[in-house]
């Protein structure tokens, strides 16, 4: 039972760390997607 709780806590800590470190990457990915979409839109419209 305590092993399960320790594993649960460890996973929650990993998730928390993931969300903290993920934020800037998420913004960079959004910017990159905007650039890609901006590049694709004119080509698709022609």
Description:
- By secondary structure, the chain is mostly helical.
- The chain has one helix at 2-45.
- It is built from 1 helix and no strands.
- The longest helix has 44 residues, at 2-45.
Short description:
With 46 residues, the chain is mainly alpha-helical. The protein has 1 helix and no strands.
Task: Supply database-style keywords.
96% helix
**Class based on secondary structure composition and strand pairing:** mainly alpha
User: Uncertain regions: pLDDT < 50 for 5+ in a row?
Assistant: none
> What gyration radius follows from the Cα positions, in whole Å?
19 Å
**In what range is the share of β-strand residues?**
under 5%
Which helices and strands occur, and which strands form pairs?
Blueprint: H1 2-45
